Amino acid sequence: MPDVRLASPRGKWLLLTTVLGSGMAMLDSTVVNVALPRIGHDLDANLAALQWTVNAYLVTLAGLILLGGSLGDRYGRRKVFVLGVVWFAAASLLCGLAPTEGVLIAARALQGIGGALLTPGSLALIQASFHPDDRSRAVGLWSGFGGIGAAVGPFLGGWLVAGPGWRWVFLLNVPLALLCVPVALRHVPESADERAHGRFDVLGAGLGAVALALLTYALIEARSGSPAVALTAAAGCAAAVAFVYVEKRRPAPMLPPDIFASRQFTAVNLVTLCVYAAFGGFFFLTALQLQVVAGYSPPAAGTALLPTTALMLLFSSRSGALADRTGPRLPLTVGPLLCAAAMLLMLRVGRDADYLTDVLPALLVMGAGMVTLVAPLTAAVLASVDTARAGLASGINNAAARAAGLVAVAALPLLAGMGPEAYRSPAAFDAAFDRAMPICAGALLLGSAVAFRLVRRPTPGCPRPECRTHGNVAAPPLEAGGRS
After folding, report:
1. Is residue 217 classed exposed, middle or buried when 0-12, 13-18 and 19+ CB atoms within 10 A define those classes?
2. pLDDT tens digits for 269-320?
3. Could you tell me if 375 and 313 are in contact, meaning their C-beta atoms sit under 8 angstroms apart?
4. 6, 169, 222, 390: which could join 134 in a potential S-S bond, CB 3.0 to 4.6 Å?
5. d(Cα 355, Cα 75) in Å, to the nearest integer?
6. The whole model's pTM is what?
7. CA angle in degrees (0–180, nearest 5) for 127-25-376
8. HSE-CB for 438 with a 13 A CA cutoff
9. How far apart are CA 211 and CA 407, in angstroms?
10. Would the keyword Transport be found if you checked this record's keyword annotation (predicted)?
């Protein structure tokens, strides 16, 4: 029986450790976008390299996050968490020292592997260590502090870019890891799942990551029209088909196909793909639009995005409580519509855009839409499966959101007609941005239609989210499984 009490010194150290670990990964998901223009300038990188700077991390994170949770259950959650923190910090150091765009992209892929180890591990440590009477409060504090980190991330990233330089966006993770690891080894108890047995689905995880990587490459390089792009796209599709084939035939698959027998689970994940594709494209392009076209400094661009996350932190728990009474269908229908309106309001953001009249209204509407949407989305995912599979369902939903974001970052510049050097020309980028926002709005409208048509009220007594406070714009919160 877990026996660590939150008020005890050990409980406070444990909470600090998990917040620091997950905060490293969450910071990187929000700060890098703000640094992209300076990275491109310093490394003489084109738009494709900036896309890969974001997507190399997401490819490995989305492809391996389910496997990372399984490794912790089998070999020890603290052990795998610490390994993830060390791995993430080492990759961050390599990012910060990268002499070329190729080294930076490779290091970002390594970062994603570390993120896949530590992100699920931080929540699993809380679930496995705290006394049941304190567990919900500990999860709430972990989620709330993580949300604060996500909110501070863009501002901190902008300040670092404008001050000591973009490399410190990555180097900052090293002292955080140096603080986190000794505390974890001294104060966090080891735990594992005695029921975990059998082989790991390494083949499935590898095929999933390879499929994502190949398809992402094909989308980013499609503007070249070379035969290599067509071959890569075909190989990516083949890897995706092989992934489905393997998952159907393995005795313990990473992604059990039978979980999609739930119509509600399938519908909510379709909504997730639509809305997080729009969010991924929106935040990637908006950070560039504010700096390249509107002329904002990196700190100003980072601060400009704060209202969206702040609204999520302040009101996500209330939105979840409201969805408990109304059911998920209404918020999952209305939330994407609000976000779509925000995308169209962003068309007002051009050269010398005024923050109060041009930028802030769009971000406030965006925040309202995300508040309306995200907490009910998580609740609907958990309610669509058995209690014992709640953690698996949450992990799949989180991975789906990240995969949707990376596909959007790869495909949206292509669909909007952005050339390799578009971010160096304010006029060219502004014109492409104006074409991209309606595309994002269209994805949100599709998500709203799917929710209205397919999402239904869950049955009584289904699992409820423990992460009531949420501020991460990159993916829905992870939830643990095996609870009532």
Report:
1. buried
2. 999 999 999 999 999 999 999 999 999 999 999 899 889 988 988 888 888 7
3. no
4. 6
5. 50
6. 0.92
7. 60
8. 6
9. 11
10. yes
